[in-house]
Amino acid sequence: MNDLQKRTWAEVSLANIEHNYGRIKAAIPEGTKFLGIVKADAYGHGAVQVAKRLEKCGADYLAIACLDEALELRRNGVTVPILILGHTPPDYVNLLLENELTQTVSCEAKAQEFSDAAAALGGTLKIHIKLDTGMSRLGYLCRESYFEDGVKNVVSTFNLPNLDVEGIYTHFSVSDFKDADSAAYTKEQFKLFTDVIHTAEDGGASFKIRHCANSGAVVNHPEMTLDMVRPGFLLYGYGDEGRLGLRPAMRMVSTVSTIKYYEPNTCVSYGRNYVTDKRTRMGVVAAGYADGLPWAAAGKCAFSVENSFAPQCGNICMDMCMIDLSDIPEAAVGSRVELFGETAKLETLASAAGTIPYELLCAVSKRVPRVYIE
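Structure (tokenized):
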């Protein structure tokens, strides 16, 4: 990284992602396929770089949210199979076929549209059927009174021309929670998922890949791995509570750009929410909410500077924020400030902001250079 980039940057360890891949693979049954989630720019880590590393590691599949994300990977030479988790309008089936992309289908009506579009182009579109077993988002309705119609619609989709129904999947809503109610709900979702599959297979359908184990299920419900697992958060080093030996892959770093001394009763930042109660050695950090620091964490977090923690003071601004360096005399202009990473934990910052770690990773903005560490 050149000197012009040394304002705020994110260090991404591809070695740690490879380590996490290996640890997850070791925790699942031999022969189980591995689908790496790289949507949302690989949770802020850089989709192309992460996808290429996973491809090198031997990942069987990748998953993204939308067509644009898939095309970015293909344009950059990623050849591993890619599953689009979200909706793609049937007008773009030509791009799905040309780029050998697998499309999620979430209802029979959309399946029919994809079938018609593929037939008009003289091609066969590979799809995965998604079941709504309790997330109440995308997927064929199949709970309770919808079971029979759900199975019927799945079988009907399987028999449509110009569709290659390779897989079937569902998504758990609380598999990462370990309380009894959440565990029971996940087991209920899993049972419904497998019941639909078995009944649909009795009706003539067949599926090469059955998958439902997201990150939470990989850790808490290993019996649900089936043919393929879909780790997302785990890949980036979070969510295992130390059980798999994962390593965080991103470290967000900034610098101290200015240091000033303020007398007692000095207002700091927008809103005058913070007022010094003593003579204070205040540092200005070259990172703000436009870089991905959560505004909601203002005054409730601390960052790592020179092997100590400096409390953050006053409202976080768009491009900078202030920290109290009174007790860290070795801190100087140019000192590095770890916003989250090895010492300043991402989970702690997320808790201070009243949000989840996922959001903070995805919020690291495009203007923050990613520096890839081997």
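The first helix runs from residue 14 to 27. The first strand starts at residue 8 and ends at 13.
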